């Protein structure tokens, strides 16, 4: 069991700090118990558990710092790791961007731990897989899925008196259902802190339906189409935009948020005025740690309000250069939605395409945030308010900035795992209807 | 790929590359990287504990990997050192078959007691998993090699070079970029040494010492007036070499259009950084491409990634069978196409082979992670799809009785599975130079270096960008192009291959952190080729306004 309580972690960290002979010291103690089960071809292929706990120490002399890690916690080992960090700090070159540790911060209440997830057993995982495989095999479908769960804690302390602690749990489930004739494929994903909200049977039924519905897809011409993006699809693209809100890059003139002639687009409208995006670590649906790894407190904060950029992410060094407060990287993102269900949105669509998910999204041009990728596991043509037939997958070339300027409608929100580079955590994303979404070629892939 | 398993190394410098946290192990001083590991007799004794414990606990097969994984990573930007990290990860993994089912357990307690417990746990897991097993594991036979060893041929262990010397080289490259007009530059140097000892109940005791190195940078130029910014990545390749790769040699410099220099078995990072800055500046005002059909002349440091995605991945047997269906996907290259013996993967001049023995390549080892000796085999012969990549427990599905030797685990704590070997395009048989590729092209584009890449889950439809693009008109390079990406279908693309340079232009491209599996594991793999031409490929314009 690698989960230490707040008091247990504090005792170890106080000991670590007491061994310091450097100008200052900061220590991070992290532990996790993880478990997983993977299945394919309607059979479990691998399953496992791992447990680890480690201490990372950073010591500094002036602007020279050194780090060392260890996974033994007796007094002699703790002293050894501090001495090693100090030795490395003395040898290190000066880092002009080094920032001294933060003093004590005020953190909000954490909502990231769930007892039900903490109690997951190998039997639970086997049953969750069976609940997904059994209905598939009854319908001539082959299931391939993966369930991963974790219990972890993070604690940090420094020589300026800061102590922070958080514990969290999480479960991720994805399954791909393929029809045995090879012409249909469906997918579903679920992501929760609290595993009691997960029902792999209910989720798998959705993917099975999609696999059956997507058989024998027809090809339609690539081009610009109105699309209804399910939350996973919308979230994968928009989270890439939100991960690129770094103030330094924008100030340096190498971001989509850099302005012609210099400066940034902070305070400017960049997307449709109905777009409101914020982060809030205490959100009930998508809770996040109230602090990030360097101890900065996370608070509720607007990223985009009424289509206007409200905040950029400032690391501590860049904030000091610009005389502003440091802004931590968000632990979650919430995009405000509407009240329409997916069914309502389809009913209101004359001609359009329903996209279950995107796949293999890669950056094409950082200047315009153009990305390419493909639809996958359930793409359908909508005509006169109804799903008409499945269609072959498309490759798209689109920018989330352009996409959010072409907004038609926001639907109900759903929790999704945050994908994309620099991601982590979870997001609350609405179904979205977008006009003029750019598909550039057809794919034969099922 | 689960992002929470990954730490981002630097913002801009790595262009979206990540190093798995589990590979980093514990931070150590650079001296530790040169300290000796357990000696071979000690490793053999420990290995025998695992094998005998597993057998007495009921295993019918067992193997153990005792691994020490050493990494060093240096990152800089402009005139500053951003990070120097040396790390060591040490432990062992025991894999067994009991009741016809795999079981695996790992421990960092490399002692008789720790290994005994791991072996017993692996057997217990196998027996528990046997309840879900439909068919018992069937292993292809392999020879027991006795006590053998293998080492990457290196001239200088990169860990023997003082960190200050490596930092100076990166800072010199940064200075060269800045002197030539760069606004920003990030440079990085990765060095890896895998010290692995493998033993199995087949009678092999294999000691290996594997080295890899990767220097890379991103040079950016910003233009305040237009608000434009452009970046140019290094044209280096990650290699299975020592520090000798960082010492430029004239004979390794390859001709390329517009005064550009490309590199074979050694790299001139300072020269390339200076060229990069000039090219990034040129990109600010370069012409935007007119979309349409073009003849593409693709140099090896670009073509390698196309080979990787459109040939390497679709020919992984586990993927073809559906084991990766929920993550990376399946494959259009099905077993019926293989068995037909007449599936035209490419044109008649396309010969693509797998080879785990190529000197200097990232995938070169003496033996794979289940004790199979490395070898070379054909995947596509004279354009026909003839074989795939398989390991001991799946090769029988092909009707073959010998593993291809491409089993790998990223660390001692991960279970080994099928990973891509080096997959390379054989050089052309006719004596063609790069100039010969260009001279009879009416409307074409020369593309160097890797860029954006994306391919569907069955590996039909792909889109690739590149690092640098030059327009070809009537057999002449006429100038730089912007906003280029090509889209094609794997079979169509390889059948449009009309000309391949001979072996004088052959060199390696590499992927240092190739991801696969759930939980995801990385591996490093090279792809060799000579510059080749593909006629009539669809090029799109990726320029947009926001």
UniProtKB/TrEMBL annotation, chain A:
<protein>
    <submittedName>
        <fullName>TldD/PmbA family protein</fullName>
    </submittedName>
</protein>
<feature type="domain" description="Metalloprotease TldD/E N-terminal">
    <location>
        <begin position="36"/>
        <end position="89"/>
    </location>
</feature>
<dbReference type="InterPro" id="IPR002510">
    <property type="entry name" value="Metalloprtase-TldD/E_N"/>
</dbReference>
<dbReference type="InterPro" id="IPR035068">
    <property type="entry name" value="TldD/PmbA_N"/>
</dbReference>
<dbReference type="InterPro" id="IPR045569">
    <property type="entry name" value="Metalloprtase-TldD/E_C"/>
</dbReference>
<dbReference type="Pfam" id="PF01523">
    <property type="entry name" value="PmbA_TldD_1st"/>
</dbReference>
<comment type="similarity">
    <text>Belongs to the peptidase U62 family.</text>
</comment>
<feature type="domain" description="Metalloprotease TldD/E C-terminal">
    <location>
        <begin position="222"/>
        <end position="440"/>
    </location>
</feature>
<dbReference type="Pfam" id="PF19289">
    <property type="entry name" value="PmbA_TldD_3rd"/>
</dbReference>
<dbReference type="InterPro" id="IPR036059">
    <property type="entry name" value="TldD/PmbA_sf"/>
</dbReference>
Automatic annotation (TrEMBL), chain B:
<keyword id="KW-0378">Hydrolase</keyword>
<dbReference type="InterPro" id="IPR035068">
    <property type="entry name" value="TldD/PmbA_N"/>
</dbReference>
<dbReference type="InterPro" id="IPR051463">
    <property type="entry name" value="Peptidase_U62_metallo"/>
</dbReference>
<feature type="domain" description="Metalloprotease TldD/E central">
    <location>
        <begin position="159"/>
        <end position="275"/>
    </location>
</feature>
<dbReference type="InterPro" id="IPR045570">
    <property type="entry name" value="Metalloprtase-TldD/E_cen_dom"/>
</dbReference>
<comment type="similarity">
    <text>Belongs to the peptidase U62 family.</text>
</comment>
<protein>
    <submittedName>
        <fullName>TldD/PmbA family protein</fullName>
    </submittedName>
</protein>
<dbReference type="Pfam" id="PF19290">
    <property type="entry name" value="PmbA_TldD_2nd"/>
</dbReference>
<feature type="domain" description="Metalloprotease TldD/E N-terminal">
    <location>
        <begin position="62"/>
        <end position="126"/>
    </location>
</feature>
<dbReference type="InterPro" id="IPR045569">
    <property type="entry name" value="Metalloprtase-TldD/E_C"/>
</dbReference>
<dbReference type="Pfam" id="PF19289">
    <property type="entry name" value="PmbA_TldD_3rd"/>
</dbReference>
<feature type="domain" description="Metalloprotease TldD/E C-terminal">
    <location>
        <begin position="291"/>
        <end position="539"/>
    </location>
</feature>
<dbReference type="Pfam" id="PF01523">
    <property type="entry name" value="PmbA_TldD_1st"/>
</dbReference>
<dbReference type="InterPro" id="IPR002510">
    <property type="entry name" value="Metalloprtase-TldD/E_N"/>
</dbReference>
<keyword id="KW-0645">Protease</keyword>
<keyword id="KW-0482">Metalloprotease</keyword>
<dbReference type="InterPro" id="IPR036059">
    <property type="entry name" value="TldD/PmbA_sf"/>
</dbReference>
